[in-house]
Amino acid sequence: METIAKRILPRQQRRFLPADERQLGFGDIFSDHMFLMDYHDGRWQAPRIEPFAPLQLSPAAMGLHYAQLIFEGLKCYRRADGRLALFRPKDNFVRFAHSAQRLCIPDFDQGLALAALKELLLIDQAWVPSTPGASLYIRPFIVATEPHLGVRPAREYLFMIITGPVGPYYPEGFAPINIYVEPQYSRTAPGGLGEIKAAANYAASLFAAEEAHKKGYTQILWLDPCHHKYVEEVGSMNMFFVLDGELLTSPLAGTVLPGITRQSVLTLAKDWGLKVAERPLPIEEIIGAQESGLLTEAFGTGTAAVVSPVGRLHYQDQDLVVGGGQTIGPLTQRLYDEITGIQYGLRPDSHDWIFPLT
Ligand code: COI
Fold it and tell me: Which of 236, 238, 256 to mutate to test ligand 1, by most ligand atoms within 8 A of the CB atom?
């Protein structure tokens, strides 16, 4: 890690941080520094931390043309005692390595990536907000940089980590959001990229998401691409439903992202002795349960979204109000409180999920 530290340039001024951290939105403000590492001549090299700045990239960089681009998302929290911590960061780098393998991106040293992240965060620690609910979002990504227009895996890449202070992902904050169940378009397919964090998955979601926004919905709930019958995920989060007292989510069958918050929710719910199942969930079953009053809660999980309640689902011509539409269900609230409690150091970390930084 000495190589990284040696290349650090002087700290710049903190820019653009709102006086009131409660006004933080998501993804527009970036901290002073960024981590970079190059891949060429068959190896990763030159790990370094530099001031946050625009990149110099060939217009022929393959990542710009063929979407050989993967990313991760995690957060750094300022805990109640003032110390900084990450939540399950090793799981992010394991998933990142899996995404790299699937997109023919050369494997990287996960230990070095985590050490580099730690160093970056210590340099920019003044950027970690102290307001409950706010945090420093961390975005590792790898993009193919080789200038070449033939379709094949690139021979040059850039591995980067940028960070920035964030508040809630959705404009609604922690208020229930409205979701459009997409009956026609697909985000991914069996054998495709749905289970990795490929930028292409997010590009594939944009058109349908814009159509849904025009109709007044915050997000899309994707159905399985073969039959448009089974509920999958939202794109920015995994989905959970409470049906007749049982916590349900769709299985990881290749088209759904293995969310780290999803995994944490399943673990906590099992700890609490709740009935939990990962199984195919027909949208018709959700509708039937709503009509008979058995659908009591719906929520999404993700690093950015944390645990976000869903108040309304729209499917074809049906509008399904969940739990009165405006209220947060008791299990949704309990899971939010427990997960954020662990992250912010207010509740015991019995699963060893916290990675202390300071
Ligand atoms: C995250 O939750 O970190 C993600 O990467 C989702 C993204 C849509 C913000």
Answer: 236
Q: What letter would DSSP give residue 175?
A: S
Task: Locate all alpha helices (DSSP H) within the chain, ordered by sequence.
Answer: 2-6, 62-66, 89-102, 110-123, 199-214, 260-271, 283-291, 330-343
- Residue with the bigger pLDDT between 1 and 352: it is 352
Q: Is 215 helix (H, G, I), strand (E, B) or coil?
A: coil
User: CA dist 154 to 59, 99, 115, 151, 337, Å?
Assistant: 14, 15, 26, 9, 44
pLDDT tens for residues 81-137? 999 999 999 999 999 999 999 999 999 999 999 999 999 999 999 999 998 889 999
Answer with the one of 133, 166, 199 that is the final residue of a domain: 166
Pick the residue whose CA is nearest to atom 5 on ligand 1: 73
User: Does the residue 306 lie in any domain?
Assistant: yes
CA of 261 to the centre of ligand 1 (A): 11
Domain that holds residue 185: 177-343
Give the closest residue (by CA) to ligand 1 atom 7. Answer: 236
Residue 256 has which token pair? 């759904």
Q: Is residue 38 located within the same domain as residue 150? A: yes
pLDDT single digits (tens) 203-234: 999 999 999 999 999 999 999 999 999 999 99
Note if the pTM is more than 0.90: yes
Q: 268 — alpha (psi -120 to 50), left (phi > 0) or beta?
A: alpha
CA gyration radius for the chain?
Answer: 21
CATH assignment at residue 213 = 3.20.10.10
Grade residue 13 by pLDDT with cuts at 50, 70 and 90.
very low
Strand partners, 248: 241, 277
Total domains in the chain come to 2
Q: Which residues line ligand 1 at a C-beta cut-off of 6 Å?
A: 73, 236, 302-304
Chain position carrying tokens 């970690």: 128
